[in-house]
Amino acid sequence: MSENATKEPLKEAEKEAPKESGPKNLFILGVVSVAIAVATTAISLVIYHNSGDIYLDRSRPGFLPDKTEVQPVVDGDYSFEPSGQLTADNMDEYIKYYEENVDMIDDLVNPFSGTPLSDESLGIPTGE
């Protein structure tokens, strides 16, 4: 009788013991966290689009500036021809442009002060 008495509590303990559900819970956690990330990203993109900020983002490749916006005028900006061969004349012209820029930098009195980054030196109009 003592054998039956000891077996019955063991069977009851086995029935009450929780089964391993770690992998299942981990999978559920992963799915729920991905769903939350997708939902919050979708909500933020909807807000971004509906607020109109998407049209002001200048880092987008398809950005078209406003027609009334002032376009910068770059004088003397050098670029190679988009098609054709690279010739000695092209290289001489590039080196001439490059040396002009180097000379402008060399003419700075104190290149590590704030003066080279002032609005006047960068050609930014001050509005006065």
Verbal overview:
- The protein has 128 residues and is mostly helical.
- It has 2 domains: 20-66; 72-128, no CATH class.
- It has 4 helices and no strands.
- The model has no long low-confidence stretch (mean pLDDT 76).
Structural class designation? mainly alpha
Outline: elongated
- In the predicted model, the low-confidence regions spanning at least 5 consecutive residues are none
- Individual helix count: 4
The average pLDDT value, as a whole number, equals: 76
What summary fits the major beta sheet? none
What are the main properties of this structure?
4 helices; mainly alpha
Topology, please?
Elements: H1 2-16, H2 22-50, H3 88-106, H4 119-122
Summarize the structure.
With 128 residues, this protein is mostly helical. Helix content is 52%, strand content 0%.
